[in-house]
Amino acid sequence: MNAGMKKYLIVIAVLAIALAMVPFALGFNQYYILLAATSLIFAVFVVAWNIIGGYAGQLDLAPIAYVGVGGIVAAQLLKYYGITPWIGMFIGAGASMLLAAAIGYPTFRFGIKEVWYALLTSSLVVILNNIAHLPQFLGSLDHYLPAKTGWYYLIFPDYQNLYYIIVALLIATILINLKISNSKMGYYLRAIREDELAAEALGIDVRKYKLMALITYAGIMGFSGYLYIVLQGTYSYHTFDSPTSLTIAIMGIIGGLGSIAGAFTSAVFLKTVEEYLRSTIGATIPGLYLLIYGILLIVVGIFKPEGIAALFNWIKKKMGFENRGM
Amino acid sequence: MVKPILQVKNVVKRFGGIIAVNNISFDVREGEIMGLIGPNGAGKTTLFNCITGIYMPEEGKVYFMGEDITGLPPHKIALKGIARTWQKTRPFKKMTVLEAVTVGALLRTSNVDKAMRKAEEVLKFIGFPKEKINALGKDITLMDHKMVDLARAIATEPKLLLLDEVAAGLRPHEMDRLAEVLRKINSEKGITMIVVEHVMRFVMGLSGRIVVMHEGQKIAEGRPEEIANDPKVIEAYLGTKPV
User: Fold this and answer.
1) What is the ipTM of this complex?
2) Which of A202, A208, A322 to mutate to test the interface with B (most CBs of B within 10 A)?
3) Tens digit of pLDDT for each residue in B53-89?
4) Cα distance from A315 to chain B (closest Cα, Å)?
5) What does R_g of chain B's alpha carbons equal in angstroms?
6) Considering its fold, how many domains does chain A have in total?
């Protein structure tokens, strides 16, 4: 570990403490804590998405597919077999990773990339939505988690505990990102993003590394899925929701591809704005937040393709971090 | 007789009805700098792509250090010890120079710190300006890009280096500097090279032996001064003398 890495760890420690104090700052208002938890689980999604979308540069539009599969597997295991989500979340993550392998292997084998990869992944969400809708699977009904509370179920009468679990998950996700970014895998993924052919000629097994990135990201998504369902309250075929899936990718792009800090800030900021708009004028102008995302995307595209990350790079330079393209 | 490090045997590559590389054979001897020249569209780059695994040759074989490497994927060929640079540079724009070269060095180690030190060493060896190693790929000049491309390739510790029109677009004094660096790489690191080139002055001064391609075929092979006076080569470049 070098000195640069230590600086990042200090920043993460400060972030963890700051996030831990949020419920106090919100005066334990349950509604606000729920909003904060929702923002942070999206931060988990976007930071995890950064692995495939940011480092590897693959425009993956199927994040909710992996969240949904992992979450629903864990929820069903709890509901029908009484298996605690402490185990179910790992099984859910495994299911998402298997799905990712099944999608990624042929996709990368046949060199599907760019627009075609985006189309393929976005249709994955639609396909899963339709499959889940079949009566053999979830049918058209909403499913509820068992009406029980406690650490065994990870369902609580108030939202603080869930909030802290999500903070822990977020910190873990950030650490995984940082670890990847500073490892051989991170360098290789960024090289693949910049120029696949040049990367391959430098001895990089492009297919293998893309698949590793996809599976890692799907694993984190699948693991978080159950917590997402707890926050939502119910699960159904609607869990495979295309706009939500797109939102995660858009947040990642606005944050700046390959930037952990950008991904985090963008998710927290945009999700908070979205929830605020939904609670204030959501009834009169529903879907306004999507319009705002669209405008932001255009603004970022024209003026700052590096996204929010550009701001952090400026701060990092001022604070004396090395320029490492992160 | 020095053992050939690379043997190209009767390689054929077609694109639809066009035969880009037509039955080409030659040997590259260990330690030499071999020039590969020919007019535009002669099939030089296609031949490079056949050697480095980007294209699969339709016929013929490529042997590297006695081993058949025909049809292996590019990353496996790189692992065996063949590196290349690109006619049109392929920079990693959002990575720093040091990071880009580190990517190359990571082929022989998994330790990022070690690879980074190796990258610094290589950049120093080829004389890359130290103050620019933390610049992003998008902020440097063409000459810098050529040097980074070269450093990236050398960092993979190749035994054979294929240079595809490395001097294209450079100013004369930059070319001289580059030729000097290439000679240094060849003599001090013992890396064998194939230099594809258009710029005659550059390739004639650099290589000990030259293979000439024209319309997919090999039309001449020999020392630079023999090549310069070969009527077939002159014809290929300048056309026939009107009678």
Assistant:
1) 0.92
2) A202
3) 999 999 999 999 999 999 999 999 999 999 999 988 9
4) 17
5) 18
6) 1
